[in-house]
Amino acid sequence: MKSGLVCAVAALSMAFCIPGSAEKPAYPLTVHVESSDYSVSCNPNSMCYGLQKISVTIDGKKYILASEDAAVVTGIGQYLAYVLKNGDYPARIVEDETNVAGEYHRVIELQTTPGAARRYTVVGEGAN
Question: What's the CA dihedral at 13, 17, 23, 28 to 10 degrees?
Fold first, then answer.
């Protein structure tokens, strides 16, 4: 019985030493933010919507991402426009679907500060 326990403990400890068995990082991508823009558009009913768009590079390819949580502003009131600072951010893909026409829908989560993240949808793709 003791030898079985010793073997089990040895096998378990070896699993932690095998190369490639390390945990994957929570945010494996690096997104380089090149510019950030906040715009407001209003419909005829005076409902206004704010949307943050960022121009980024991921693995050498350019994209435009839009924030998922657009702010709603009623009437002609004040609103706070937030933009994201340029620089590198850890990121991960949280949704990735492709349809039969080859078009895709992708949502990327950026870790903006330790413990805080924002989700963005890919709304544009550029040349390399």
Answer: 170
Contacts of 38 (CB under 8 A, 6+ apart): 50, 51, 52, 53, 81, 82, 83
- Give the DSSP letter string of the chain: -HHHHHHHHHHHHHHTTSTT-SPPPSS-EEEEEEEEEEEEEE-TTSEEEEEEEEEEEETTEEEEEEESS-EEEESS-------PPSEEEEEEEEEEEE-TTS-EEEEEEEEEETTEEEEEEEEEE---
Let me know: does 41 contact 106? Beta carbons within 8 Å.
Answer: no
First to last CA, the chain: 61
6-45 pLDDT, tens digit per residue, is: 444 444 444 444 555 567 889 999 999 999 998 887 778 7
Cβ proximity of 51 and 39 under 8 Å:
yes
Q: What is the model's pTM?
A: 0.74
Q: HSE on the CB side for 10, CA within 13 Å?
A: 6
